[in-house]
Amino acid sequence: MPSPEAPYAYEGLDRVIHEKARLGVLTSLTTHPRGLVFADLKRLCGLTDGNLSRHLQVLQEAGLVELRKGYDGNRPQTTCHLTALGRAKFLDYLAVLERVVRDAADAAREGDGPAHLKPA
């Protein structure tokens, strides 16, 4: 719940998630609950191998994703999965982001912002 003194602080916008590439990765994994092979995730997010690897490392260190190493035939294959914690944190993040959008849309409709912030 936002504080009355700082209604636009949006404390739930986690910096780990908020970065554009990581937001794309988490969205992709949310829409693919069985996980995604590294190459498919790379393609969906428009990232390079190195860039995706680095973002996955950050998300893995935060406990939001899990990487499973295996083989497809004789070829090594990494599959990326959203963890239960990752799913919960991402859904919380989306709720805060929805609040940002509502607040901005309300302010745009009202022309000069919410009544509680107008000068007396």
TrEMBL record:
Q: What is this protein called?
A: MarR family transcriptional regulator
Query: Which biological process annotations from GO are given for this protein?
Result: regulation of DNA-templated transcription
Domain Winged helix DNA-binding: from-to ranges = 22-101
* Matching InterPro entries: ArsR-like_HTH (IPR011991), WH-like_DNA-bd_sf (IPR036388), WH_DNA-bd_dom (IPR027395), WH_DNA-bd_sf (IPR036390)
Q: Which domain of life is it from?
A: Bacteria
Organism whose genome encodes this protein: Methylobacterium oryzihabitans
